[in-house]
Amino acid sequence: MSNQYVVLDLETTGHNPKNGDRIIQVAALLMADGEVLARFSTFLNPKVEIPTFIEQLTHINNEMVQHAPTFEEIASSLVEFIGDAYFVAHNVHFDFSFLNQELQRIGFRPLTNKLIDTVELSRILLPTNEGYKLQQLSTHFNMEHDNPHQADSDAEATGDLLLLLLDKIKDLPKETLTWLSRFAPSYKSAIGELFNQGLKEAVRAQEQEELEIIQDLPIKKAVVKNVDNHTDLSYETFYNKREELFKGVLKKYESRSAQWSMMETVYEALTTSQHAIIEAGTGTGKTLAYLIPAIFVAKEKKQPVVVSTHTVNLQQQLIDQNAPLLEELVSFPVSVTLLKGRHHYLNVRKFLSFLPKKESNYDIVLAKSAIVVWLTMTTTGDIDELNLPSGGKLFWEQINDEQPLPIDFQEPWQRFSFYERAQNRAKDSDIIVTNHRLLLLDVMRKQKFLPQYDSVIIDEAHHLEEIASEQLGTQLDYFQIHHLLLKIGTNDTEGYLKDVGEYMTGRKSWFIKLDGNIRQVRAEMDDLFRLIHRYVRRSMQHEQATTRVRKRYEVEKAPSSIKESCLRTLFLLEDFERIYLIFKQEGEKQQWDPVSKQYEKWHNLIACCEELLLIRDKLHTLLLTEKEGEVCWVEIEAKGAANAAFLYNQPADVSEALADLFFTHKKSVILTSATLTIKEAFDYTIERLGLYDFQPLQLKVESPFHYKEQARLFIPDDLPTVNETDLDDYCLSLAHSILQVARVTNGKMLVLFTSYEMLKKTFHYTKDLDFEERFMIFGQGISTRNRTRLVKDFVQFDQSILFGTSSFWEGVDIPGEALSCLAIVRLPFAPPHDPVVAAKMDRIKKLGRNAFTEQALPDAIIRFKQGFGRLIRTKRDKGAIVIFDRRIIESPYGKQFIKSIPEVDVVYKPFDEMIEGLVEWWDPSE
């Protein structure tokens, strides 16, 4: 490719020139044939003040631009430098539009260059990247980028990125580039021309050994590993040589007695067919402590050991980091496979059926393009590898392997089934990594996803009860039903019914009857969920409207319109079953070609009809069936669609089910987490999980961190409590306090809430009170709902404050100086209106016991321990914990929270004195 490119970046005072925003720095590179031919770079005097936010982001201040030229003075030279080359930028439409508006403001004609957006190009050619910000890409590819958000550094990084992307195009096979070229009219920049140019030099996929082709689509060949069960090492030998082996592999090795103790307990449980429960504090190295004995036992028994986690992050860590390290330590081949549910895997046949269709939705075009490239790279076909745009995630629902056809298990489709590949790898693996939901679906719902195994290690085990309750329960919402009925369609709307009707020769009468019934079901379902939504909204008392339903009792209490609609819907679905079964019999008389499009549509229609019958059963269970010990509730989106109602049903107690369906059938189950004990004992967790009769081995290993030196707990004794004052006054007082703490710690502060309403109010007060705009303040659900993006934005700024609730109490890992202060607004008791919590407490009360001490308090302590664990993540971390809830000192139960965490010094003083203590501890030199 011999084209010339001008790679340009601007730094500006804001986003809108029409509002007076101006350029403060411009940098550009002229590139051709992989080399930089010339550079253009200068600061610009904007003749306006640079906002504090921009100064923090770019580190460009008013003094730096004071004597710089104005845009008017350099415009002519810049236009000449750009010439007629491709105009390249990271998020090109912003830079190009801003520059053109500035040129027009001073009387120049706008530029008309062809645009290349390196963001758009990266999303297609780098489909597995975690993010597409320039700094993220620079870090990922080890490109020099010393001053992010300064134009000269950004332009150089963008130039390096462009060269990398052009090389990626050269590596793609001809067939892949042909598909990308077909999508060119739908791209937002001229990247299609780059694909066309690449086509001239590309080779066919058959010439690349690692690829194979199906219907002009290149796909990476499956990797077949030879299973080698040969081991030169026994566990006993390894354990005796462990110090020497660890020192040989880990550069900064530190002996950990806690890790060895856990390793021994895991090995004992696995080899003597016992269950075990282990609490391992942060930094104990628990992952290797269970993986090492697991690999030896798997080799000895020639049967895989299953490792189950709650989060995707830990699953990926096990595969990407821990498995290679494990193989180094034991010095023999280790086979570790990640296994997920069907919907995680791409169905190649479905994708090929959608690929040629013209799309008006840009996100789908982008998703198709990214998947076409990804298929030349992936060996798993797992969506969690992909970084799809939001619309692309909806497209995935149409192309995943959730409902495969019988023909998917005929050649060539079976050979290209990523789900089958994963299953085959798992059968021959030593360790199978999966998630709690799939694990429990496999054992409790008898849906066999996992190969035969007797031993399982459950990490993040404090989530097991919650996931078990969900798996044993039922849930249904209008959107599920609406989506299903849309797929079925009618005889005059798009859908499987219309498609199949075209081929149902001589059998139109049953087709017409089914069509009429589907129309009635759709209308009645819509009415039913509208009525439920309206009923719940009228009884709203909380920000998230939730109403517990006591089955028939509540249905009887509900307006007669709901009862009538519910019964009409169920009668219609009974009619549907009768008509559908005859329709199915008639259809089976049709002579279908099993590999034809017609048969595919027939099969899809039948699958959807069966799913509608399951929905009928769910509706009956959720609204009309009585069962002791279950709780049913309805949630609505108060500001959502008029029929946005969600029905749930779960058992309040899962201990017996876990005992009977899970622990009884497995020889060894090891449960581990950093938060499993209450008052130094496992009794609460053992009872909740149904382990009491199994007498599991028990071990508690402490964290190696020196919390006494690394952390200090500060509690103001004079701030109002939320119950003593108006919520607005409380949030205003809280905002003042948070800012005063942040001024000592220079931000780097995570503030944990238990109420989103309180978070939102406090966030806005804090923003208003930060007059000098010293801090970058981020709020969960306000700045964005994406937790990963919030954490990245938080870390990016030197002085930032992050407000979080719910998911931020655990699983957030911000090591080092990026997080130096943790603030807990209120002790994390579950809200009393939570239906499952309320049902559990009701059950305990009926047994004549204390629901607060047996349920509410232990749950809150475990959550508190999770929140506390966000702060100290390495031996080098230092941080302050500020708790704004006086109950931790003043209430009879408060001491239990403090005793649940590692020993730290506690400062309990009036707020002003507390701040003085914080200053002294934070920087003793002051």
Automatic annotation (TrEMBL):
It comes from the Bacteria. ATP binds at A280, G281, T282, G283, T284, G285, K286, T287. A motif (DEAH box) lies at residues 459-462. SMART domains: DEXDc, DEXDc2, EXOIII, HELICc2. Its cofactor is [4Fe-4S] cluster. It is an enzyme of class 3 (hydrolase). It catalyses: ATP + H2O = ADP + phosphate + H(+). Its EC number is 3.1.-.-. InterPro entries: ATP-dep_Helicase_C, DEAD/DEAH_box_helicase_dom, DinG, DinG/Rad3-like, DnaQ, Helic_SF1/SF2_ATP-bd_DinG/Rad3, Helicase-like_DEXD_c2, Helicase_ATP-bd. The keyword DNA damage applies. GO terms for biological process: DNA repair; DNA replication. One of its GO terms (molecular function) is DNA binding. Keywords: 4Fe-4S, ATP-binding, DNA damage, DNA repair, Exonuclease, Helicase, Hydrolase, Iron, Iron-sulfur, Metal-binding, Nuclease, Nucleotide-binding. Belongs to the helicase family. DinG subfamily. Type 2 sub-subfamily. PANTHER family: DNA REPAIR DEAD HELICASE RAD3/XP-D SUBFAMILY MEMBER (PTHR11472), REGULATOR OF TELOMERE ELONGATION HELICASE 1 (PTHR11472:SF34). 3'-5' exonuclease. This is 3'-5' exonuclease DinG. It comes from Priestia filamentosa. The lineage of its organism: Bacteria, Bacillati, Bacillota, Bacilli, Bacillales. The gene is dinG.
